Amino acid sequence: MKYKIFLKIWLVTGLLLFTLVTRADNNPAEQLATLLNALQTTQGSFEQVVSSQEGKILQTTSGTFALHRPGLFRWQTLNPNAQLLVADGHKVWLYDRDLNQASWFKEEVNNSQSPAILLVGQVQDLTKLYRITVTNNGDEAVFTLKPRQSSFFEQVQVIFAADTLSTMKINDHLGQSITIDFSDLDDHADLNLFHFTPPKGVDLVQAAV
Questions:
Q1: Domain range holding 102?
Q2: CATH (domain of 167)
Q3: Among 23, 62, 91, 118, which is least packed, fewest CB within 10 Å?
Q4: pLDDT score for 102
Q5: Alpha-carbon gap, residue 110 to 8, rounded angstroms
Q6: Higher pLDDT, 94 or 164
Q7: Strand pairing partners for 194?
Q8: 62, 58, 91: which is closest to 75 by C-alpha?
Q9: Going by C-beta distance under 8 Å and a sequence separation of 6 or more, which residues neighbour residue 86?
Q10: Does the structure show a pLDDT above 60 at 15?
Q11: Would you give the end-to-end CA distance of the chain in angstroms?
Q12: Cα separation of 105 and 138, whole Å?
């Protein structure tokens, strides 16, 4: 189903942030938690590429995003299709303008093992959810997170360049990968962005999860 595929891609994504300083004397989980805990509000642009195990590009999308901790996010795809994903703290909405349809589901972000927890959830228990390592290459830090329990993804990499989030890479158990590059980051976002009211006449569907 088109919606479930889009939701899966986003939630294992994903994504966004900020400029921070990493303490070299912390362990990887502490370093990552420090970076993520400093995130409160941000917005910017993204480009997302889904690739097959053989490296073939299956899908490319781009758009804008915003987030506010804890639990609020907005992911707006502009190309190739206009879709909007909004978490308002109670529901997650997906609106497809071309189909004139809006679907929603309840999502407990803080209890989820989805990588979305890295962006808008609590990060105190990172080591309980993931095995975390970090590789440093000059001014680039690559955090690799592998779920401790069964999950639909194999690992997530969160990459910071010069202490700024630049990329997320997600690999699933089928060998497919999702790469999301972030740009034009700004640590301000209008809180009205995290509210969604279905336009009049739109078909409403409660998504099965």
A1: 2-206
A2: 2.50.20.10
A3: 23
A4: 93
A5: 17
A6: 94
A7: none
A8: 62
A9: 73, 74, 75, 92, 93, 95, 193, 194, 195, 196
A10: no
A11: 12
A12: 42
Q: What is the pLDDT of residues 59-114, one digit of tens each?
A: 999 999 998 888 888 999 998 889 999 988 888 899 998 899 999 887 655 445 56
Q: Compute the Cα dihedral for 118, 120, 125, 129 and give only its sign.
A: negative
The pTM (predicted TM-score) of the whole model is: 0.79
Specify the number of domains making up the chain: 1
pLDDT digits over 38-55, tens only? 778 889 999 999 999 999
Looking at residue 58, its pLDDT comes to 94
What pLDDT, on a 0 to 100 scale, did the predictor assign at position 112?
54
